[in-house]
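Worked Example 4.2. Consider the chain below.
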Amino acid sequence: MESWDVLVLGEGPAALRAAIAASDAGARPLLVSSCSVGAASGFPPISGFSASLNETSPSSHIQDTISAGGDGTDKEAATRICSSAVEALSELERWGLVLRRSQDDLPHLADIFGHTFPRVAGCGDSTIREVTRTLEEQTMKRAINRKSDLLPVALVMDNKQARGIIALDIESGNLIPIQAKTIIIASQGYHGIWNAPSQGHGNGLAISNSAGISLRGMANAPMYALTISGVGMVLPMDILGSGGRIRKVSGEDASPLEVIDGEPCVLDMRSMERSADGWFENTSSKVLDRVGLDIRNEVLPISPRIVSTTGGIPVDDHCRATFDSGKMWYTGLYAAGRSAYTGMHGLSPLPGNLIMEEVVTGAVAGKHAGEWSKDSQFGGHKMIDEALSESQKKIDQMFSSEGSPVGHVAKALSSAMRIVDGSGEQSSMAIAQASINEIASLGIRVTDPSRRMNTELVTALHVEGLLSLAMLISSNEEEE
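Applying the procedure from the previous section yields the following structure tokens:
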């Protein structure tokens, strides 16, 4: 059985930054992901990186974050994380991130809805890709071990202490136990519930939920305004800070909130700044390929969609997973990025805060986990063996003749959850819960008998995990 000081689950900026911080703290981290290296570069380009670079203090950024999130915003978390934004972005630039710059050679800061001042830096429509690439280079520089094509199927807990995971080796089809002193959950969000499993499988939260870890904020699924109607293609919010405009049918300007409220709108990119052309070339090419429209001459019909989530494992200021209203922590367990519930976003995240939070929380979690692991011991061999046996039974069951095909379950799940829009409306929750319980009772069946490179099995495990999270959301049983 392999044993590591720090086990990081995920492939995005939060996971990569956590592994870097753990390594710098003197620990031996292992990155585990079901995706190949660089897969996170293809995540939807929601927005750039918000940081108060041209301001004397982050106070306005903090206030804007609280205003966007509403009364449910954790003000302490917003203050703590926003105050670290400038340092986090400066570090990325020192490591080689090439930011779009203004005429005075300073980072270009986009003026986007919700911000009092221009505050969103980035690389046009490639911010997530370039941040991921920069962090991956740093993991290689530190010779951090990484295992791709390993899908975590169980989180092993022993009396509220993290002991390891059971992972499916996708290539061989075998289950592999991995022991660890500390575990950082930093995987994708669970927005695949409303779309397709591949668009946000929420694997880290699913195995955490199955292990009895308390989750918070799961029912809050903020809508995103800039997606092309009919195809669901996500466009970066940075467009609005470079001359792009949302317009109503009448031609009047509209805000993202009006799109989310159901106002029929289009995105007009015909008057984009000349200096922005090269930074949004990827968007122009993709739009032309997907819908056959030239953004220089035509407007794009847009509609709201759930493309990210903010719920997850509640964490403290060290990104330790907590329970009992933050009074206790699951020993050795951490969360970062889209797997963590910091509370800083409230009902709606401020543009640029999502990727910023990923990098900041990843650094905090990795540093503390690396330091804490120095004085910790391995354990839980018996619990890991039992989890291995249970995981094998679960997978074997999926190959039986009973249950519904994976595709049918995924489609039924997304249909059932479409009425859950993040408002927490009780009648919608009750209807969704009834449908989800019926779907879950039928089970999931894998039709491909092969155990090697069985992508249908991988999808089935993702769908099963999303189904368990959907049941949690619709039942309102998460920790308050």
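The chain has a mean pLDDT of 94. The domain at 2-149+308-373 is CATH 3.50.50.60 (FAD/NAD(P)-binding domain). Compare this with Example 4.1 before moving on.
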